[in-house]
Amino acid sequence: MVVGRATLKEQAAEYDKLFRETGCLFGLTELKRKKEDPGTYEAVWHMLLNAVNTGWAVGCKVSSSPIAVEGGDAVWCLHVPTGEVVCSSRGITAHPGLLSMLIRRMIDHEYEVDPGINPGDIFENNDSHFGGIHGPDFQTVVPIFYNGELVAWAAAVSHVMDAGFVMPGSIGFLNPDVFTDGISFAMEKVGEEDSYYPWYEKRIRTRTRIPEWVLGDARGRLAGCLTIRQKFLELVEKYGIDYIRDVLKEYVEDGRRFSLSRVRTQMIPGIMRKSNFKDLAMKGKRVILPHQNIDVLFNLPMRLEITGDGKVRFSLKGASGWVPFGENLTPEALRSAAMNAFSHMVGFEMFNWGIMASWELEEPPPGSWCNPYPQNYFAATGVGWAPAVMWLSSMYEMFGRLYYSRGYVEEVAAGAATTMTAEFSGFNQYGLYTAGLTLEQASNGGPARAIADGETSAWCIYTPNADFGNAEVSELYYPIMYLGRNIEPDSGGYGKYRGGLGHTAVWMIKNTPGIEYQCGCAGLRSKIVGNHGMYGAYPSWPDRGSYAIDTNVKELIEQKKPLVHERGDPEEPDLAKNIKARILETNAVAPFVTPAIMHEYDIILHPISGAQAFGDPLERDPELVRNDLNNGWTREWVARDIYGVVASYDADAKEWVVDLEATERRRQAIREQRKARGIPFRQWWKQEREKILRRERMDDAVKTMWATACELSPDYGRDLKAFWKLPEDFDFRS
Amino acid sequence: MSEYDISEIEKLADGKLPWTRVQEIMRLPKDTDRFFKWLRILQSRVPWPDRILLPLTTALFVVEKEDGRRIVKCRCGHEFDDYRVNWKLHALVYVRETEEQMREVYRGREMPDPNWVQIREYYCPGCGTQLEVEAVPRGCPPDFEFLPDIDSFYSQWLGQPLGGQPYQFEDRTQQVIEQWAREDLAG
Predict the structure, then answer these.
(1) Based on the number of CB atoms within 10 Å of its own CB, is B43 exposed (0-12), middle (13-18) or buried (19 or more)?
(2) Helix axes A331-346, A385-406, angle to 10 degrees
(3) Most buried of the four, A435, A679, A720, B58, by CB within 10 Å?
(4) What is the ipTM for the molecules in this complex?
């Protein structure tokens, strides 16, 4: 026990020791304040929530950038002095864990001594080496003092529109190394007395392309933090510092207990495994350095073990190697992202550090995409989110399976959608240089449930605050005009219940001397399908973009001829049918940057994915298929060939009619076809083994992925080769 | 603590409850007897008498045979192997690995690259139900999605130990592969 006034470092060490000894955070084997007066305990919790959410509202409004103002893509939090987050605002809730780890890192580096932590100080970080996830996510931390003692922290994250990367914008998938990862703040004191230092503004003005927006975000983060500080101190005055100090810690421990109890009462012990992959095909495309002229496939395996005594452990054994792109991630960032997904699926009453303390993540293989620094300290993390959010999709599905087995069917989620971003850079309609992200990707289809289809365009893996913003407002920020923003039929996979559908934005470039479009990867799949289906559903399709440069759209408008408002048939797309252009691409493997500057009347079609489906498609209620046909959400051939539904269009009634008896006969026939074409697994295993030995139909990206996975996780490699009975020295690459 | 009539849980599982009621159920604390009611519902819907210990998917169950063996069984009655062996090893499998095969499901821009990924469809040999679909590059072993620790679950979590000798909690899939290798790859 530390005696007297302990330093933060001593306090933190003491808390860690107490957690190890008692299994309870801060050694709180009892929640005394909660027990004594549960009403006040609950009321103060809601007042704190109100404080951080007011911080969010103030901060987003003070910021001038569209991503905060229009999308709310930011978060504000309150932390105990040793860093553990107590509560979080709405917004991008993947970050509170990282903010906790950042504060803890400052404490570990003895910031109390140098540079000192004083009332009014402002600290900032966006460097992955010190607790950031990727460059555009700026973290701001402000200490809260009461009577000269540090009693809490207010902290915030917002995603700036340009991070000073080698390419404009904030989705740095093209960054080859840390030297191209943009402007850096490495756990720095950037201000005091509630004001940023003069050099802070200078650095942003010289190292980002749109400093007004980046500085607006900085002011927003600070304004939100100061709002939290003010409201928090009012609560201290009202309830007394001793009470507040106690309940902050109790809320965190309470969060841990809730999470643990949910596992025990709603899960099942055992071992779950889910393979998962992500592509990044850059061969032959515009890249920054020559060695990036490659295609990459990531291995993102998830193993989940829930022990009989209720311990939860995640493992990434088998993760493939780091990549020469901005899609590497630190284990700390992965943990924080996992906190978000875990809380989505396991649930929470108090969203805070307690959730993080209720499970373990085994250290990812050193040298892998999710732990690159042991092999490459200069690995880029420009959009480290990308593989992380795809890996997390497995967490949704795994817990979905556990819920289904346990009977809590209402909690099942089949797996997440993907994230393909759209960024523009160039001069806008006001003659100003602009660079930044549209918000389209922040509103995917939601995962299918075990009892219903997923919601359409209303879900996002990295924020519960799914919102793609108003088209009219986006038109104010960028030199574009929306020709369409339509639901994409069949984009949620095929299953008994389909995933929520995505949508496609169709933009015409307007009123600019020239602008670039970057179809970015913040977690997309373009060579492979969206993911697995669950319980026999087909996966959603790959993400592909379309564009037309130097078009005849001006003439078409003058002649009042059809333009393009949606993607249309996948083999005869509307873009190719209706538009003529010097460069016309209807099936571009993403990510990519358009090959030429885009001008007025050029066209972009940017699809946003739906999510994963659930169950055998032959078990879909024909009435749901009929409803989708009537809404234009599924196509006739899909209804017939995938769902086995026999339907005809009644032109007089203007609706589809299903022949139920013929449907049942057709479905039975399809089941018989399956039995006829399926072969016993044992027979296939023998054939497949031969094909693996010959490396048949294995792209170089596939071979490299398996090779690095086997090298970085030797026991994973041994198991994989043992399954196929491959020689122990089998090298996938040779 | 919440408690629901079994008929309401049945409607919930069948997607027949009004959405407002589903949301209410989501918000309320969970009912602790759900698992046993769930088993009763599932048991009443299968045409065979073996005791369901745990549902694995919408079609597959871990069941206890009369002689005490625990196996995976389809709702149609088709029996797989010991539940500690990945049931996919005893399923029918159809793999889409050419553009022609993929086009039946994914057309034009919707088609993945067959050199990067194959679509594996696992069917029940008894009824032809599509039990799982995997989308993986060549070389990926089939996912053994869930190996439940059934004895710990029943004894420690539900407080109702299963009778008979406890099963060792271990993955036995590789044992089958080793046997196949001896029989099929000899020489």
Answers:
(1) middle
(2) 30
(3) A435
(4) 0.98
